[in-house]
Amino acid sequence: MTTESDPSYPDHWEADVVLRDGGTARIRPITTEDAGRLVSFYELVSDESKYYRFFAPYPRLSDRDVHRFTHHDYVDRVGLAAMIGGEFIATVRYDRIGADGRSATGPSDEAEVAFLVQDAHQGRGVASALLEHIGAVARERGIRRFAAEVLPANSKMIKVFTDAGYQQKRSFEDGSVHLTLDLEPTAESLAVQRAREQRAEARSVQRLLAPGSVAVIGVSRSLAGVGAAALRNLRDSGFHGHLYAVNEAVTRDLLDGVRAYPTLGAVGAPVDLAVIAVPADRVPDAVAACGEHGVQGLVVLSAGYGESGAEGLARQRELVRQVRSYGMRLIGPNAFGVINTAPEVELNASLAPAPAPARGRVGLFTQSGAIGIALLSGLLRRGEGLSSFISAGNRADVSGNDILQYWYDDEATDVALMYLETLGNPRKFTRLARRTAAVKPVVVAKGGRHTPAGHVVPGTRLPEATVSELLRQAGVIRVDTVTDLVDVGLLLASQPVPAGPRVAILGNSESLGVLTYDACLTEGLRPLAPLDLTTAASPEDFRTAVSAALASPDTDAVVVTAIPWVSEHALADDLAEALRAAAAGHPGKPVAVVHVELGALAEALSAATAPATAPDAATAFAAAPPATLPTPATALAALASGAAPDRDPASASVSAAAAVSAPAPPAPPAAEPEPASGAAGSPAAPAPGTARIPSYPAAERAVKAVAEAVRYGQWRRGIAEVGQVPEFEDIDEAGAAGQIARLLAGVGEEEVATLDDPDARELLARYGIRVLSTLPAPSADAAVRAAAVLGYPVALKTTAPHLRHRADLGGVRLDLTTEAELRRSYEELTHALGKPQELLPVVQSMVPRGVDTVIRSVIDPAAGAVLSFGLSGVASELLGDTAHRLVPATDKDAASLIRSIRTAPLLFGWRGSDPVDTPALEELLLRLSRLVDDHPEVVGVVLEPVVVATEGLSVLSASVRVAHPPARGDLGPRTLPSY
User: Fold this and answer.
1) What are the backbone dihedrals phi and psi of residue 442, each rounded to the nearest 5 degrees, phi first?
2) d(Cα 42, Cα 49) in Å, to the nearest integer?
3) Strand ranges for 98-184 from DSSP E
4) Is the pTM above the cut of 0.70?
């Protein structure tokens, strides 16, 4: 009898998945305790579906059936169930079979598979998700093929198999369709899996951002506190759906003009999104009410979770489990909320003060409410609107990865801005960011170099510099500060991506032009000599000069510098109009403006595309008193400890009502045009044909923004040429797998084993990586005998850990051509450094001289396998001159990897030296990449030194570490992070 507490129960097969419609389900192995659930599930399946499953009428399961379907050995017989609300909605089962089609045990590698999905949940992608997971389980248990018998009329199930992307065979036998699926992942199956993942996760976010109805749970009768502030912002944003307030102590029909109910169940209508603002100890009851009511998603503003310590962290994990058990998604806890400015939605379910942000083309995601407020204020003050805003707090469920999935095909978002404190899963993040960056810029400011409290995500051991490099390889524009985030976002949202690094500089200040020129050189751009228009330049002079610069075939971007005139305000509007006119005449090149103490010009430029209400919105937001700008630390503090004694018990209000109470938006002047969606909604979209030009108060900031856009453009052009992961015919993958299995036989689950030299050389040789042999030399006589075997000239070196690769300490003697030289060197070595038993000397054949390099591969728990390259010795160890690529590496990755280090010229004939054999080096990198990609048990490899000569290379030493692989990774079946 196997239960979930049984040691044999494979708990690593449990997973939460997002379904096609954006809801979630939990997949887990079926146990003997599931008999009641199985019977209840079967009773809800239609007779037609039962017929398709058993090929005959089968109204009920017999006791024998129930026993068979709930008793598994999790090797030859496995059953998985998809669950929502603690009940089965679908099952899948495989039974290992032999060549005769009868039940079998290993080494048979084929199994028969069958599905059953409750009719109410068909069409949600449940069977496709179960196929991914049962396939992964089967591969883990040595099964390589699935066989299935399907009735021809069961077209839905046939489609599940045929659309999976696996290699398959199909035949018609005895009135049924016989399908055989090869479970080895293919490029097509991986593409299918990731396309389904993107659609499902994007849909789950879309349901959160575009609900048809919203309920705020925890609105105090006094209309003070967090819940009331969220309700007010929803109401004042002009939300187009139904809005409800929930407070168990409510005694009237309306709260702040919104229909109010004592419980969610009393609403009597569907609720798509619930905003929860009650103390943390009351959140579970609120979540249960939402789950029973069929709510699709939650925004939990309540604090008192992972950010508050171990007890809060446990509470947060339980919250995620509870939310997902009902098939819902969660933003938060400790969230600041979400905003969607789409004209058909106009949702402000956040604590951001009204009025709502202007509608724009920028999407913004933050993990910090305080940073979110700062970014909103900065963007609005400089005239930029938003398409969507998500401040996810502890991001226990919905994370930046989900938002990237949504933004990828969101037509309302042109630029993605993200403030992240952790990446969570860097491997998945870089994969999603790379795909998104191929169609729209992704700009990331990453705060914190550690995991903040409350963020329960897999950590990475990679150095920060390595993570940054991997992000840039994925096309992410990585910036250091939130100021840079706004600066770069403004440029990319309003200007085209430059075609190259050539920058024209012009303005009415020679000194400011020189500063801009120097900044361009610092950023690696190619600036033209600055054009000084003199302080007497008029707006028309600027227009003429900018037009000429944009028209020149020698420029890719233009930076305009401006200092004040005597009558600044009189000319600011004229200059802004002149610059817009020039830019409009040549729309293919970006223009940025550097202004010194020209506030009026900055306002005029930022207002170029903004409707009349946008400056009012930005001003109101930025100028709001401190009490109206709540942060999670102040506005949400009461949610962790409970409501104040003089407040409603169901509310989450704080004692100072002003801390979260946003002022009503000021009435616009009569002459101002109304927003397209009404006075309460987001400002209307910009009028076509106008252009906004970003302005910066310092040359360095403008140039940095341009430089980031240039580098992004270069990356976009580079990805047009797709690299290939080469196939090597001499690779012995099966032999390597067998050797690794033998080596791990005595290694514990949590242990890491370092292979001895013979085993390491054997394993590497299976992938065409030859490590030069060494012979031990415990004495001078042994060294002489070793040299006789190898042939002179030889090298004598120590292998003691503290002296390994330390030629600078004298532990290596090279080009020893005679016995006398070898004996003398042996005596010098032992006299200077210690006894032979301490030094562990060896003798090795000499190889052609070349450049010493080092190649490493390491398995990071979050990022996966990373391939690294550098020159051996000081360059990589002291200066950190090492480049990195994710595995599997393509031929293009390998070529760029060796060219990415600062000391790369030493490989290509620096100062008249002979270039080394870089094609051989690239092949070695690709072979090592294949080894660690094919065998996740290989958790670490170091090849050092690798001597690269003018023809060929030699690997002189190798270290290999192996361990039992993690159960799941980014390459496994779709799954949400587990807690």
Assistant:
1) -120, 115
2) 10
3) 110-117, 145-150, 168-173, 176-182
4) yes
